[in-house]
What we know:
Layout (H helix, E strand, L loop, with lengths): L34 H6 L10 H10 L4 H11 L4 H9 L9 H9 L6 H15 L5 H18 L4 H14 L10 H29 L8 E5 L4 H12 L4 E6 L6 H11 L4 E4 L4 H4 L5 E4 L3 E2 L5 E4 L2 H10 L4 E4 L40 E4 L6 E4 L2 E3 L4 H9 L1
Parallel strand pairs: 1-2, 1-4, 2-3, 4-7, 7-9
Antiparallel strand pairs: 5-6, 6-8, 9-10
Pfam family, one: IF-2B
Protein name: Translation initiation factor eIF2B subunit alpha
Main location: cytoplasm
Amino acid sequence: xxxxxxxxxxxxxxxxxxxxxxxxxxxxxxxxxxxxxxxxxxxxxxxxxxxxxxxxxxxxxxxxxxxxxxxxxxxxxxxxxxxxxxxxxxxxxxxxxxxxxxxxxxxxxxxxxxxxxxxxxxxxxxxxxxxxxxxxxxxxxxxxxxxxxxxxxxxxxxxxxxxxxxxxxxxxxxxxxxxxxxxxxxxxxxxxxxxxxxxxxxxxxxxxxxxxxxxxxxxxxxxxxxxxxxxxxxxxxxxxxxxxxxxxxxxxxxxxxxxxxxxxxxxxxxxxxxxxxxxxxxxxxxxxxxxxxxxxxxxxxxxxxxxxxxxxxxxxxxxxxxxxxxxxxxxxxxxxxxxxxxxxxxxxxxxxxxxxxxxxxxxxxxxxxxxxxxxxxxxxxxxxxxxxxxxxxxx
Length: 395
């Protein structure tokens, strides 16, 4: 089970109609296929393409129109079990749906998926018709389960929902208040938790500024909102630095980040992913985001992060991680395969023989010994103290 910790510092539907004549039948359990999948096997078995990666592509990817259309079509569909949960969590006597609320919040480009889930759960409390605390907690639990089922591979989404439940209903003292007062307190806590989570990115940006010095070269991988905020704040503080962006195949998230940095007049150089070792001698530090920070102090992030950290470690370059504390997960992976897979469609642009297997994993695990510091809204942490922070926050 995924968990996440909070900061206490501050108070698409387009697809091949010939293949899917009935759009209503599209589900995540039967996603549209990429070009390489079609070429490899004319009658392939269904493969679960993670909503985690579809959403990432839809919001951050600079990709071919065909690939993006496939991702958007898959995002627009939901599996039958999620649809069933969505029906179950509709507030009694009302048309409110937590999934609809979540999707509305998720449309904001600068809002993290986990924060969107927190906002949606807060709306469940406001719209609830429950008359007792037990009924309200049951509704919240159903809403949380529905959101987590929307994409079971998303670390921050699942952790955010779990921590919201702990933070909002953390004391039994509510049982001794009248229901209206208790509900008002729950709403107040929910809004507070949402604000804390939303401000986390800004806190991290401020904490990291002392580590970015004039004349430095920073290597980044993929598109991370919090890393972009760190670099944007440094540029606003008139610091002089340049950035190397990896392309970030297959969705080319590095292209998106390089475009955003160019708008800030930050000198930026785009690298193909395989040029990391070649360029590392010019780099002063590596800055990456994280999809999850695990109990060992390591991180789970976009595929390629592990090899970048290995190269940087071998060349004595510091590797910094910028991650909101709600991405802290009570998980202890032992190797690359010891975590829930998040798959992605891959189009190589050329025919692939049917006998050739294609790796479709979207992320990898970087052990703590290859990381230097983690910049979080809890403070600047070494990997070794992550487990201590988890214990303090959850106990």
